[in-house]
Amino acid sequence: MIQIKELSNGIRIVHQEVAHTRLVHCGFILNIGSRDESKEQEGLAHFWEHMAFKGTKRRKTFHIINRLESLGGELNAYTTKEKICFYASVLKEHYTKAADLLFDITFNSTFPLKEIEKERQVILEEMAMYRDSPDDSIQDELDELVFENHALGRNILGNEETVRGFSQQDFFEFISSRLDTSQVVFSIIGNISFTKALRAIEGPLSQIPSKRTLYARSEFKHFQPKSKTINREISQALAAMGRPAFSQFHPKRYKLFLLNNILGGPSMNSRLNLALREKYGYVYSIESTYQPFSDTGFFGIFFGTEEKTLSKSKQIVQRELQKLRIKKLGTMQLHMAKEQAIGQMAMAEENYAALMLVFGKSLIDHGKIDPLERIFEQIRKTTAEELLEISNEIFDPEQLSYLTYTPN
């Protein structure tokens, strides 16, 4: 059973007890991400994520890092376009320590000046690592192409100029202007009762003053398909194509999830994998992805191949997209696709650390947590006609942006 409690300041606590595990997974999910930065603040949310581990009012860096690691636990964080998450996994007997530490790094970071300078260099090295990894950088550059002149198109890591210029005051001002206590969730899944889970965290969270922000995200509205080719020091050509897609509030989002799974999902029997890898041996891997945001979404396809097979590979991709636009799935094809997608989602539910974060995000974005059965029902109700309609809306080749890396 999922239990939710909302405090007077708007912060919510969501919990699910799981008896057949020795662990507890818990974390803070904040509805703040890289898209909430101004152009001058590019990379600040991600920098904040790093700095949360570098000192609080009660702890120095070593004490933060050592607190759970020395107990066999894990402490981590990440930043996306729309969320910052601080989370931990520990043996159930150490849950209180994990909750206390997560509270401390989320709300009591002091951003020590010396640590800012050290972490600035760490992030610059991280940026260099991504630039040296074309598989990663092509995804970031496709974002820039699709969401041109919008915060969704900016790199989460920021750029060298902004990262080199951030001051201690920048962190405090960003948090003050963006943190809304009604947009904060503490999520817990594991072998612990709701009563015990609350006992460790409800008191400290209740002391945080209620805060609402007047800030509102700038919606992405104007997409213009573009093509771009870049020569790089790489051994194979890389291709990416994408466009805006359905938001996380769109009634067809689960249907697009199903359609994307058919086209280029993680399974080896996806249409793109069968066509490019299994039939021709042109690629080692190829994937399509669908990521919903609060006001829009992203659909993309990524693959690498030898330069001599690049043109042919692109033609095959276009052919697979066209097939889904002109021919309905047969009854058995559709049934098998639904069962595959449902099975994948059911297996994902067994990953309690990931599910804990999903609960927090869902509560922030939708104000509720849909049971998997309700999602399964939407997938099962999907018709071949609906998928054909979505294919024609999303897979139109003239409405895709194209980015290609070619070897020098």
Number of helices: 15
Rg measurement, Å: 22 Å
Give the overall shape, derived from the CA principal axes: globular
Alpha-beta classification: alpha+beta
GO molecular function: metal ion binding
Domain Peptidase M16 C-terminal: 166-340
Family: Belongs to the peptidase M16 family.
Domain Peptidase M16 N-terminal: 13-158
What structural keywords apply?
single chain; alpha+beta; Cytochrome Bc1 Complex, Chain A, domain 1; 5-stranded mixed beta sheet; globular; MPP/UQCRC_Complex; Metalloenz_LuxS/M16; Pept_M16_N
How would you describe what is shown here?
GO terms for molecular function: metal ion binding. With 408 residues, this protein is an alpha+beta fold. It folds into two domains: 2-207, Metalloenzyme, LuxS/M16 peptidase-like (Cytochrome Bc1 Complex, Chain A, domain 1, 2-Layer Sandwich), CATH 3.30.830.10; 227-407, Cytochrome Bc1 Complex, Chain A, domain 1 (2-Layer Sandwich). Helices cover 45% and strands 19% of the residues. It has 15 helices and eleven strands. The chain has helices at 44-51, 61-69, 95-107, 113-131, 134-146, 160-165, 168-178, 194-206, 253-264, 271-279, 310-326, 331-348, 352-366, 372-381, 384-394; strands spanning 2-6, 12-17, 23-30, 74-79, 84-91, 184-190, 227-232, 237-245, 286-292, 297-305, 401-407. The strands form two sheets. It has a six-stranded mixed β-sheet with strand order 1-2-6-3-5-4, sandwiched between helices. Strands 7-11-8-10-9 form a five-stranded mixed β-sheet, sandwiched between helices. A hairpin with a 4-residue loop joins strand 9 and strand 10 (297-305). The protein is globular. The N and C termini lie far apart (57 Å).
